[in-house]
Every structure is written in structure tokens, then in C-alpha cells.
Amino acid sequence: MSTRLKTGRLEAFSDGVFAIAITILVLELSVPAVRGDELLDAFLSQWPSYLAYLVTFATIGVAWLMHSAITNYLHGVDTTFVRLNLLLLLLVSFLPFPTALVAEHIDDYEAERVAAVILGINLLLVAVVVSTMWRYAVDHRLVRPDARDEEVQVLTRRLTPSLAGYVAVIVIGYFFPLVAVFGYLAIALLLMVPLGLARDDDLEVPAT
Amino acid sequence: MSTRLKTGRLEAFSDGVFAIAITILVLELSVPAVRGDELLDAFLSQWPSYLAYLVTFATIGVAWLMHSAITNYLHGVDTTFVRLNLLLLLLVSFLPFPTALVAEHIDDYEAERVAAVILGINLLLVAVVVSTMWRYAVDHRLVRPDARDEEVQVLTRRLTPSLAGYVAVIVIGYFFPLVAVFGYLAIALLLMVPLGLARDDDLEVPAT
Amino acid sequence: MSTRLKTGRLEAFSDGVFAIAITILVLELSVPAVRGDELLDAFLSQWPSYLAYLVTFATIGVAWLMHSAITNYLHGVDTTFVRLNLLLLLLVSFLPFPTALVAEHIDDYEAERVAAVILGINLLLVAVVVSTMWRYAVDHRLVRPDARDEEVQVLTRRLTPSLAGYVAVIVIGYFFPLVAVFGYLAIALLLMVPLGLARDDDLEVPAT
Amino acid sequence: MSTRLKTGRLEAFSDGVFAIAITILVLELSVPAVRGDELLDAFLSQWPSYLAYLVTFATIGVAWLMHSAITNYLHGVDTTFVRLNLLLLLLVSFLPFPTALVAEHIDDYEAERVAAVILGINLLLVAVVVSTMWRYAVDHRLVRPDARDEEVQVLTRRLTPSLAGYVAVIVIGYFFPLVAVFGYLAIALLLMVPLGLARDDDLEVPAT
Predict the structure, then answer these.
(1) CB of C48 within 8 Å of any CB in chain D?
(2) D62-109 pLDDT tens trace
(3) Residue D74: beta bridge partners?
(4) pTM for the full model?
């Protein structure tokens, strides 16, 4: 059929969007306009900006890791999967905007509540779509036949608790926005850890 | 001849431009400067910006899908095709500008008419060049010999109605600009649907 | 030796820089702040911005074509070539800045003279480095042994006249800056044409 | 195990981030708003911006060269290496921010001291993580078995002195910030030189 896509291009295009979204975050950081040795104070007092930067960087990093893990298991993609992938990229490339919302209002409790919830919803949607992509791939036999059942189940389990985690932290964010921002960071870092269970000798020869 | 290009690099360069154009759109969204719980209202009242963002994201996404479908059928490219490809990338990378025009004037009927028509013309030109690239490829036997005639005809048919659709919506845009913006979104989403006709078992083994 | 690089990564990194430089140009275009139907006038009166955009887009496009043509001929790269490549990328990624200089001062004769010469020098340096890379590759036997002598000579000849062209146009730019900007565009478009001499049946089977 | 990553995607994603970080630097350069032939003076008086631009460009360029040299030696990556790689990308993509700090305060001695030290710490951290990645790869047998011991030792030695160099220059930066900025540039250029020891006939056949 004419509409099939090479998996390679889907990966290349997605890698591009992930890489750009994770890199242009820095453009949202504003250079303090103060003069003299006040610059150090001004630089340090912007820490909420760096925190928001770190949260989004870590989340996009995790999304990329998950995306790589998923496509690594596939022996092909169908057209629905490609559209789910575009939806994921839409949500990922939007992330710098709520990140900027959080960074600019962190000293304003009422506004920060709004910003933290908006960021949380964006993060949750990323997690929902990643999870949906994996379930879709499993249900529609896009997964390589040689993948062991237990491996598939491990990845399925991994993707579910993070949804519950985001919902919990979004509710917290409505009352304690700054706690929620640290919570988003914690979720992203926790999601990085379990992916690290592979043993050191568990290498993969580069396919180049 | 010295001027031949690897198809791989044409795809890599194009994927890069598509990925960047689709991701830097977010930089055009402005963070509301209000304080307190007015942020939610300010965030929501910017919906035309998000709509324009979505229109351009969907259109670039469709252009990328079409581009992938086309190059997937080719067994090689010649130098004219490479230049048509550069023209397409010029039009795609320009899209964030009329998108910003639409987003910033959506509460100003007279200006919005102008912006909606300019965006529509940009979208139309993208569709014209994609269509031209495919027709050129068919006419100059760049299409793989093993591609079935009906597949080629399906892709040719798909690309033609969207031209008529854009012209119709641009005319509408002159009188009802907001309707036109939704119309552009509808065209992009419709163009995504027919590409989804492939069956679930219609997989492609990744070539890597 | 430990310092060898895969040609594939040099191409991927270079494609990335070319793609980004060519795409972020659009961020330098400013959205007119006028209201009502004056938007059309404001949009059109910005034509020098679009001209500068087009000049730089075409020049980066040509540089990418030349770069692709050159690396297509190589059977490997050495470490000096990699550094020349970094120098080229430095010059290419700088181009949006003199482009913005030209765009913002086009209604100011004295300033435009300065801007047009600065842009011209940047364009000239790009052409000098591309030419140097090719000569270096020829002199150090990086060119594939199966490349025919006449092909090598064609590419060498192609790269030389553009240097003279840029010098001539830069001098013109000192007196007639707007003429020079059109001249830069003409050079870029002319450089695209000769690369199009290949016959239609002169295809390359995609290596994927 | 489900968490293994193709080396190819790690390289593609990393190349994307390096390419974007090195290219968006130009967006931090501000176009002088002066009119008439004062533009030349205004353009030239911004030289500290160009110097900062050059420092960061050269440093990201070196980091990319080092990264390429390292991954070129690996026959695979494990999950810890992938996370170290994300940490490196975090530091690299942050670099445009301290670069802008330096560029905007270079005529303000007190502020410049702060900015130069912040930039130096960022550069040092990049060097530390690159060095750590290589040591980790050596210690965990990620290096290709056919790599000769002396090659491995050369790369190990190369990465260590730069750490000491950065520490020395950061201390200088606290007293003589402008000297430090030139020092950072010198380190980056010096790090480029030794990688150039390979002989001209030391080619690599492109793997494509």
C-alpha cells in the first residue's frame, strides 16, 4: 500500500523533534538585565526557571527513552501508529510553553497554581499517548515476534503507574504548586531509574 | 555525474527542516504577563494562538507524511527533484510567519481577513509543490518499477482535491477569516484520514 | 587511529546545522503590529525582509547541495577535513545575523551599504571554505578512486567563478546595496542551475 | 532486555542536540538599532558577543568531536551510558545561556566576573561528563575489543588535562574575566589540534 512509512524516517523525524524541543528550552531563559555584582544574585534568584527547565528536559528525555524502547521492539509501524506518533510530537513540542508559564509565575502563588496544573496536564497527556502507543503496538501485533512476553509485560507495567503519579501530582499542584513542580521532576527521574536495570554486559552491537 | 545526491541525505535534510519548522512554532506563543488567578483566563483567551499553532502543526505533519509517502515510492532522485524539494522546504519553513500573523490578529476582523488569506496562500503553495513533486516523479520515471499502477493513481488522486479545497477555503477566508482557519485545520485532518486506509497487518519490516 | 570519524555522523551533524540555520531564519521576521486592513500594506512593505530571507535560504540551500555533492565523492574524511567542515558550519550558522542586518536597514542607504557588505563577506567566506574543502579533498586523495577526472574538474570549475562573483557583488554593494542583495540571490540561483545538468535518467538507486 | 537502545538512535538524537545548540547561538546576537553609517561601528563594537559566540561554538564543536571519537570506539551502550549522555546533552544545550550572560555584560567588570565564572563552570561540567563517559565506557567494557590499548590511553590522556585547564581559567576569570573568555577559546582550539594528528592517508571508508 502506498501509505506505508519506513520506520527509519519515523525515528529520524521523531528524534529531530525531541532534540529540538529539548534544546530550544534554553531560549525561554531570560538574561538578567542588572549590572555589577548583583548579577550573581539575579542569576541565582532565577532558580525556578532552571527548575522548570530541568523538569521539561528530564520529561522530554524520558519520553525519548520510552519512545526508543518502544520502537526498538517493533518490526514495523502502521498508519494509525504514525498518527499517534504525530500526536505525541505535538504534545512534546508544546511543552516549552507551559514550562515558560511555570518559570515566569513562580513567585505568584495564584498564577503558579494555574501554571503548575497546565504543565501537569501537558506532562500527563505525553504519558498517556506514550502508553497508548505501546498498548496499540502490542494489540496490533506490531511488536517483533521474538520479543519475550515478560519483556513486553515489564514495559506495559512501567508505563501505567506514571499516569497515576501525574494525576496525583496535578491535584497536589492545585494547592501546593511548587511541590508539584518538584513532583514532576521526581516522576521523570524515577522513570529513568527502572530503565537502568539492564546489566552492564547487556550490550547491543551497533547496527550502524 | 557529479551532481547526484544520495536519497538518504535528501530525506535527512528534509526531515530536519520539517522537524524544526514544526517545533519552533511554540516560540511564537507569548506567555501572558498577567498576575494572580487571571492567568487561567489569559491562558484560555489565547485560544486563537493555539488554533493557529494546531493548524500549522497539522499541515506540516501532513506535508511530512506526503513527503515520506512520495520518497518511499522513489528508486532515486534527479537534480530537478532536489530543487523542487528545496522549494517545498522554503514554503514549509516560512509557515510559522503567517501562523503568527493569524494568531496575533484574530480579534481584529479586517486584519484577520488579510492574515487568513496569506496563511491560506502559503498552505496552498505547499500543497501545489507537493503535488508537483509527485507528478514530476511519475512523469520522469523516478517511481520504483515495482509500484503498482493503482497505488500510483491513489496517491495522485489524493493530492489533487486538496488544492481545490484550499482555494475554496481561501475565498471563504476573505469574508469569514475564522471559518477559514478551522477550514485549514479540517483539510489537514482530512488529508491525514485517507492515508490511514492501510490494514493493520499491512506492516513494513524496518530497514534500519 | 582514535580520531577517525564516521562519514555518516559528519553528514548527519552537518545536515542538522544546515537544516536548522535554514529554518530559524523565519524567527527573524517580525509580525507587523498594525491593526485593520493596514496589515496588507504592512505585510507587503516588509518585502526587503522576505528578499533577505530568500537570499540566505537560497545560499544555505546551495551550500548544502555543494556539501552533498562533495561528500558524495569522498570515500572517507580525515581530521583536517572535519575541522574545515566545522569552520563551514560556523559560517553557515552565522548567516541569519547579517541577513537580519540587511532586512532591518533596507530603507536606510548608509546603513544598508554596511549591512550588504557584511552579508556579502559572510557569503564569500562560505564559498571560499566550500571551495577549499573540495580542493583539500582532491589534493589529499579523499576522493573516491572511481570518480572520473572530468567529473572532478567540473566540480572544481563550478566552485571557482562563484568566488569572483561574490567579490564583484560586494564591491557593487558598497555603492548600490540593494542591487548587491539581488546579486547575491542571482549568484545562489545561478549556482543551482548548473548542478541541474544531469539527465533525467541519471538516477541513483537509494542506498537507504 | 527491553531497555536496550540502538547506538544509532543515541547518535542521531545527540547529533540533533549538538547541531541545534551550536546553531541557535546566533539568535542571541542582537541587531544594532542604530541608523546610517554608524552601523559599522555598532557592528564592530559588539565584538564581545562574537567572541562569546565563537567560544561556545568551538566548545560545542569539540564536545561533538569528542563524543564522536568516543562512540566510534564503542561496540554498544548500556543504560547508564545513555543517562550520562542525557546529562551531557543537558549541559551542552544550556551553554547558550551563560554565553549570552557573558556577551551582554562584557563592558561591566563586576558583572563580567560573575558571567565568566558561570560560563567556565558550565564548560568544565561538559568536560567532566565527557571524560566520565569515556572512563565509564572503558571500565565497563563498552569499548570495542579490537581497539588497541595505546589508542584508548591516548584518548584518556587527552580528556584529563582539559579539566585542569578549565579550573585554572575559571580562577583567572574571577579576576580577569576577559582573559578567561579568551582562555576558554584557547582550550577549545587546543583540544581540536591534537585530534588532528592522524595522517592524511588515515582514511575511513564511509559505512553509509
Answers:
(1) no
(2) 999 889 888 888 888 888 899 999 999 999 999 999 998 888 887 788
(3) D143
(4) 0.87
